[in-house]
Amino acid sequence: MTNSCTSDTDDSSFESMRTIVKIDSTEIYETTYNVFSNVDALMNEWREGSYLSKVNRMAGVQSVNCPNELCIQMERAIDISKQTQGAFDPSWAAVWELWDFSKPSVPNKDEVQKRLPLIDWSKIEVSENTIYLQEKGMLVGLGGFAKGVALDLSDRQLQNEGFTDYMIQIGGQIFARGKPRNIGIRKPDGFPGEIIGTVKLINGSISTSGDYEKFFIHDGIRYHHIIDPSTGYPARGLRSVTVLSMNASEGDALSTALFVMGLDRGMSFIESKKDTEALFIDDKGEIFTSTGFNLN
Q: What is the CATH number of the domain that holds 46?
């Protein structure tokens, strides 16, 4: 297991939460690195010494004293779970170990069914300084949220330090402030660098979740890493979802939630959200956009 953040040979990138973080200016390196390191120490469930890993180990046993920042962010994750009626659910991680994409295999149906009752965001208890998972076997995974949190907190700190123009990327998510950036949207299963178009990003976040990031094919069926919390199996119907949002952590979570919801339900949801837009690519390759999403 890697450390929370290890410097890369390129002085404009580093590793955090098992993903490479890229910045467009070395001037913001130290601040961004420190923020991502702190978030990783709080919210990386894969890191043995993180507070979240302690919460998972104590599931069904006792509450865990946690820094206020983690409690705040956990409450926000729970709120998004409520809003999306569980399409985003941090307790989905109860089935994650059944899906090993380094050694592809389809898990036993009975084992998946046995763990489904452990996926329930309402069983996550948060107080001002403690977090408790009500049942043994529960696991919380914030991989679809923590990267956005780190982007938001980096943006806040950089603004406090007087920076006004920068761009930070981690995986399929970018936050930019200052001058407009034209961001390409990847074509699922396209050639490297092949895009379906671009969108202008100004003082906000763009986050994409796609079935091409981690997957394997078994008996002609694609199994990918975006798990539907209601079934314990990969969500079906879409290839990717891209969300534009002023808030990176919300955009991070919603790109996953909308993928799980599917086109009809997801489009209805995003049209009800203020200052948030989305682009959907379905399993036939057709593109659909919310009212304010301007694809070029």
A: 3.10.520.10
Task: Locate 78 and state its tokens.
Answer: 């729970």
Cα–Cα distance for residue pair 294/296, rounded to 1 Å:
6
C-alpha–C-alpha distance, residues 231 and 213, integer Å: 20
Domain extent at residue 246: 171-281
Same domain, 116 and 175: no
When computed from its CA atoms, the radius of gyration of the chain, rounded to whole angstroms, is 18
Q: Is residue 163 part of a domain?
A: no
Q: How many domains does the chain have?
A: 2
- Using one digit for the tens of pLDDT, what is the confidence trace for 67-84? 999 999 999 999 999 999
Query: How do residues 249-282 score in pLDDT, each as one tens digit?
Result: 999 999 999 999 999 999 999 999 999 999 999 9
Contact 72, 148 (CB under 8 A): no
Distant-in-sequence contacts of 280-288, Cβ < 8 A, 24+ apart: 280/238, 280/240, 280/241, 281/188, 281/196, 281/238, 281/239, 281/240, 281/241, 282/237, 282/238, 282/239, 283/236, 283/237, 283/238, 283/239, 285/188, 285/239, 287/196, 288/263
**DSSP string for residues in 157-191:** HHHHTT---EEEEETTEEEEESS-EEEEEEPTT-S
Instruction: Please report, as a single letter, which amino acid is at residue 195.
Output: I
Q: What is the DSSP letter of 24?
A: S
CB atoms within 10 A of CB 208: 22
Q: Are residues 79 and 191 in the same domain?
A: no
Among 44, 131, 94, which Cα is nearest to 231's? 94
**Antiparallel, parallel or unpaired: β 195-201 and 181-186:** antiparallel
Q: Does residue 208 sit in helix, strand or coil?
A: strand
Q: Is beta strand 64-65 parallel, antiparallel or unpaired with respect to 204-210?
A: unpaired
- Helix and strand numbers (H, E) in the chain are 7, 16
Q: Does 148 fall in a domain?
A: no
Asked whether 206 and 199 are in contact (CB, 8 A), the reply is yes
